[in-house]
Amino acid sequence: MRKHHALYIALAAFTLGGCGAGGGLALALTDPFTPKPGGKRSITVTNDARNGILHTNGQTADTIDINGHTYRNGSSLDIGYNFQNRLSDFTYVLKTDNGTRAFEDGQLGIYKRAYTAVVGASIQHRYDDHGNQLPNQLNEFRIRSIQGDATPVAQLPTSGIINYQGHAFSGLDDRHGNGEPHGRLNYNINFGTQRGSGSITGLRGFGDINLREGNLSSGVGIRGIADSANKGSGHYELNIYGPNGAEIAGKAYNFTDDQKHDIGFAGSRTN
């Protein structure tokens, strides 16, 4: 659904020239919050158990209908028209039995930047094997997929502290009228010590969230504890994407006082 884009037509005319391969990182360094055209062009639909859009609640779908179009494992979803640094929504239906029986539906929220995309699912209904609707899911929100080109180890800095800033969201209602998520991410990685820590602020219901220090591991990224002022302790994980460590993207989840709402986040280098 191409929402929230009409407001940015004038901006697009001025910024299209600066979003090529040579200007993308420079633009990210100066402003990690303004909507921009271009950026990540597509996401891949997979059935991966940890990071696949087709996998949910212990089940794996054969197909997913997104805005009325059917996608299978390995299909590509075009998000090139969506603006960077904004949260866009799409209707979805997960189906099994070779795409003939729905077992979950709702809305996908896709937040993208130049090199990454974070896909969340606001679950509205689940269905049993006979097609009967199960009780409503109380606005359950899950981060289903985090996609991007991981930065090769050889391109990562070997010293210094890099700051990343961006957005965070925990539902499709967690945004302003222009599509900008309410949450703000601020995260530092010390590439000399191979450790990172940061914070998320502005998310309704969670209060301030402290992302405790975690170790940077090759091929894994950073994993650590996330402490919410209002919802207890959970976990977070992130990885580094794009040329020269241009972006980070990840999720926080499994809070002691809220097992039903994950948080997605992504940010760009500011230095």
Automatic annotation (TrEMBL):
GO CC terms, sorted: cell outer membrane
Stretch forming the signal peptide: 1-21
Keyword Signal set for record: yes
Name of the protein in its database record: Factor H binding protein-like C-terminal domain-containing protein
UniProt entry keywords in alphabetical sequence: Signal
Chief location: membrane
Pfam families xref list: FHBP_C
Lineage, uppermost ranks: Bacteria, Pseudomonadati, Pseudomonadota, Betaproteobacteria, Neisseriales
Subcellular location: Cell outer membrane
Factor H binding protein-like C-terminal domain residues: 155-252
